[in-house]
Model the fold of this input.
Amino acid sequence: MMTAFDLSGRTALVTGANTGLGQAIAVGLAEAGADIIAVGRSAPTETAEAVLALGRGFHALAADLSTTAPIGDVVAEAVAQAGAIDILINNAGIIRRADSLDFSEADWDAVIDTNLKSAFFLSQAVARTWVGGGRGGKIINICSMLSFQGGIRVPSYTASKSGLAGLTRLLACEWAAKGINVNGIAPGYFATNNTEALRADETRNRDILARIPAGRWGDPSDLKGAAVFLASDAASYVHGTILTVDGGWMAR
Ligand code: NAP
Done:
């Protein structure tokens, strides 16, 4: 049955789709009918298997998004491969932890460049193909609780994710009338590589769990529904929102 959530015939470009949240989002979009172009620096072998098993198309493009250098080629190759990109998921991201008194410029730049700068310029490059082709599309930025809150010992990460939330709103305002929906998803605490250090710290792990109303860490598959919704026609009048998927964390 066709529904407003159906993504058949659409192509989604997902960054960092080899693991964690990006992998779950790619598989979720494929379950809803989308073909996937996975962009990242590690081979997305598992994701390819899962997407192909669903009968959807899968194509991998190798790119290190710590700089903007590969973005032009990535978008050109994706368009050559798929004809057009319909959905962009800016998911690739890193985190560096240290007290702000000791935080290095290298850890500042690495996180801002990957999480914020590359997300902006990839969005720009993809949106140019849409505007040039007289069509719209969907952009979903993977934000964080630290798009709203301060956090501890992650200054460049908080700056990047707060910046990404602001950028989501700005791009939504600039591009809504062009048929482009720009929204964000703010995952709460999910069990992935990104949060390994937190889960390994008994005190932090206990404190985090005690504050999550749902009483558990998120599983990457918990993000699928939000991603499919924001990527679909069902969200055509949704612009500039950051949808929290956090087991109730922000409601406390
Ligand atoms: P993860 O398992 O560490 O995955 C991060 C992804 O980003 C990986 O695919 C990684 O590729 C890719 N990546 C990092 N640097 C890259 C670069 N320079 N070029 C290309 N790809 C790069 O972490 P995750 O939890 O799934 O994180 C995904 C996103 O969700 C991130 O933006 C993160 O900030 C955000 N997030 C996570 C949580 C959480 O609780 N886990 C909460 C809020 C937001 P490699 O495998 O090659 O490193």
